[in-house]
Specification:
about 220 residues, alpha+beta, 6 helices, globular, disordered N terminus
Length: about 220
Amino acid sequence: MKKVFALVLFVTMFCWLAWAADAAKELDAAAHVLQTMTSSKKIPASVLKDARCIAVIPKMTKAGLIIGGKHGDGAVSCRTASGWSAPAFISMTGGSVGLEAGAEHESIVLLMNQKGEQELKNGHWDLKAGASAAGPNGESGVSEQTGWKAPVLSYSNGKGVFAGADIGGSKIDPDKDTIHNLYGETATFQSVLSGQVKAPAAAQQFLSALRHAAGTERASAAH
């Protein structure tokens, strides 16, 4: 019986370490995307400062030879009263995510306003018409006349240059398995994004890149 218990414990620990390693790789990849995004200076600083949540899909890949579906896994963090939340994990799928011509994969960055934050925390999110818009580039930002109307502003980086991306018709789902394996069975997508869960050491590079890219101050609730 002791041998069986020891074996079960070993297998459980091995699986947890494997999950933790995968999560760490995903966070490191997301941090690299944020660092590249910051150095490119293509996303307006004013938009980044106003974002309530920022999601990064390090590798959005074409899935299938005949049907052009897309899939990618990534991390998302939201502003809280004490700074950026620990990262939660998401999966993104969709047939209309705009990859550059000839590209097999690229990075996706999603910036969400207050409405986008609310939709995200509801869990499964179908990005139907009007839910997203290609983000502005350069220093133009979002004009005071038009405001930030779409819940999500989207960007892609296929060849080292960030540009607005079409993600209409895609879906975002919480990656509950990774969340539970990294934070414990009691952790939920909402509790992580609300700042109720402590960020692990593996997330520090990602959070540091996020603070550098978008600042630490709480975004205005007016958006």
